[in-house]
Design a protein that fits this description.
The protein is of the alpha/beta class. Helix content is 26%, strand content 18%. Bound molecules: alpha-D-glucopyranose (GLC).
């Protein structure tokens, strides 16, 4: 069968290229039973809210039993559901309800490490005779390491920790309570595949694969232990394809574009289906700080061509620090100065622990421009819960968790998130972004709210598969504050204009085609042909669909 690349039908086949993904943590979304912890039943109650918003895929952060020293990324049972969140039954009801409303679900899969409380590691510590000893990476002497190679420099100063019981050193790329799995061991690979298979069988449509680059770095292993590190990803991909043909792998791969594309593989469907574009994200913040679109245009230009069916995932914020590690030090300093000058807003010397609305001082025009921009980029947009209402961070919460405060549903106590008095993480109470000001209930009643605007943005994005599938072309501009681009797919085109600057300006447009530029967010249609200047307000955003003469108008 040839791929359905030029027809709209393709959007129902390679569904991820036109999806709108919404990431949430069950624990902070909605508490149904008043114990102060969000749960699966609570989330299930809000599936209609998410369906109304228009998202088509929910990404669940880890919901597995865990030691809770890395917010669930330190798993103690890959097959379980954290009892604080509910049961397997609750999860399957949730998956089914979401599917009924047209929403697929994916979840974090964390193959790089377990918790040190995982039964595998507990057994492994018994020594070489344990059947699980080789599930982890050990050394008798502490191996030499490159300075600065730790992910969390505030808490760790080495990638190796000594285990008194095993009397050996073990590898941990993240915290020392997260020993790295030995992916060179075929049994480990089998177990990980079985875990993926198990959750696919519960109705998930794939995984956000955590910390992927570490999986293919055979640190601490004897030379040749893994003949081809990427084979792990190929095997997992093939296995998942056999179990559930529509399932995807969305990878956390924070590398340069040239290195990142290696994780798609040479052909589509060979390794990962989607990768977050961290370089585009970081360049976007530099562009916003400078009010100059050129760094973003350059980062987009640097993206290599994608193998068939593969896709970039774009985001404004995720659950971690806003890492700026790929920027040059002076560039990073510029972003810090613009969006997080207080050292308490910064983390690990490389990132910010803030959400966008606070970084932009709550400027609605600018916030909307940024989301419109992200949604118009060549790729699939990924939202983080609360972005649709403009939630800010709670800096009273330590470290990266500042952006993981409870969802702000209403102005009731504890933001309507729980009826309990105590929550594990405090809701944001005071200030312009506190829950009394920023909440879902209030914004639902206001036709001009960010929430209602976001709903329209999501609907438009889903109606514009050209953006997810098309060929991206920048359109030359006189004013560097303006990013203008078009996306062409199957004879149809979208033109998007964004003014990153706080001054009114003009975009230059020179299209070869005749016809009408249909205004997708307003009612100011334009003639397409010839050369024209389009006035842009400060921080303006405009999308058009090019309607060629004689063609039917889209709604
Ligand atoms: C990924 C996650 C992060 C977690 C880490 C270790 O980077 O995004 O939240 O702490 O992996 O699992």
């Amino acid at each position: 069968m040839p791929p359905l690349t030029t027809k709209r039908k393709a959007t129902g086949d390679v569904w991820w290229r036109n999806a709108v993904v919404y990431c949430l943590d069950v624990e902070t979304f909605l508490d149904s039973d008043g114990d102060g912890c969000g749960d699966l039943v609570g989330l299930c109650e809000r599936v209609d809210y998410l369906a109304g918003l228009g998202v088509s895929c929910i990404w669940l952060m880890p919901f597995y039993p865990s030691h809770q020293r890395d917010d669930g990324y330190d798993i103690t049972d890959y097959y379980g559901v954290d009892p604080r969140l509910g049961t397997h039954g609750d999860l399957v009801e949730l998956v089914r309800t979401a599917r009924d409303r047209g929403i697929r679900m994916i979840a974090d899969l964390v193959p790089n490490h377990t918790s040190d409380r995982h039964p595998w590691f507990r057994s492994a510590r018994e020594g070489r005779d344990s059947p699980y000893h080789d599930f982890y990476v050990w050394a008798d002497e502490k191996p030499a390491e490159k300075p600065g190679d730790v992910v969390f420099p505030d808490q760790e100063n080495s990638n190796w920790a000594y285990d008194r019981k095993a009397r050996r050193w073990y590898l941990h790329r993240f915290y020392s309570h997260q020993p790295d799995l030995n992916v060179a061991n075929a049994e480990v690979r089998d177990e990980l595949a079985q875990v993926a298979g198990f959750w696919l069988e519960q109705g998930l449509s794939g995984f956000r694969l955590d910390a992927v680059p570490f999986l293919v770095e055979p640190i601490g292993m004897p030379p040749g232990a893994i003949a081809d590190p990427h084979q792990l990803l190929r095997d997992l991909r093939r296995f998942m394809g056999r179990r559930n043909g529509e399932s995807i792998l969305l990878g956390e791969v924070n590398l340069s574009p040239e290195q990142a594309v290696e994780f798609f593989g040479a052909r589509g469907g060979e390794q990962l289906d989607m990768l977050f574009s961290f370089t585009v994200n970081q360049a976007m913040y530099l562009a916003l700080a400078r009010e100059d679109a050129r760094p973003l245009a350059a980062a987009l230009d640097a993206l290599p061509p994608l193998p068939q069916d593969c896709q970039w995932a774009h985001f404004v914020r995720n659950h971690d620090e806003l890492t700026l590690d790929k920027l040059a030090p002076e560039e990073r300093a510029e972003v810090f100065a613009a969006f997080g000058p207080d050292p308490g807003m910064q983390l690990y010397g490389r990132g910010l622990r803030r959400r966008l609305p606070a970084m932009l001082g709550g400027d609605q025009r600018r916030m909307r421009m940024v989301y419109s921009l992200m949604f118009s980029l060549p790729g699939t947009p990924v939202l983080f819960y609360g972005e649709e209402i403009g939630m800010a961070e709670n800096l009273d919460i330590e470290g990266r968790y500042a952006v993981r405060a409870p969802m702000q549903w209403s102005d009731e106590p504890n933001a309507g998130f729980t009826t309990a008095e105590e929550t594990r993480r405090p809701v944001l109470a005071g200030g312009p972004f506190g829950f009394r000001e920023v909440n879902v209930a209030r914004q639902r009643r206001d036709p001009h709210s960010l929430l209602n605007w976001m709903e329209r943005l999501i609907r438009r994005r889903r109606e514009c598969p050209e953006l997810g599938w098309g060929d991206w072309t920048p359109l030359a501009q006189d004013d560097p504050a303006v990013l203008a681009h078009r996306a062409d797919w199957g004879g149809s085109a979208i033109v998007a204009l964004h003014n990153l600057g706080g001054r009114a300006t003009q975009a230059r447009l020179e299209l070869a085609e005749e016809g009408v530029l249909v205004d997708l967010f307003g009612e100011r249609d334009l003639d397409a042909g010839g050369r024209r200047a389009i006035a842009l307000e400060p921080y303006d955003h405009r999308w058009f669909r090019l309607r060629r003469p004689g063609r039917r108008a889209a709604p």
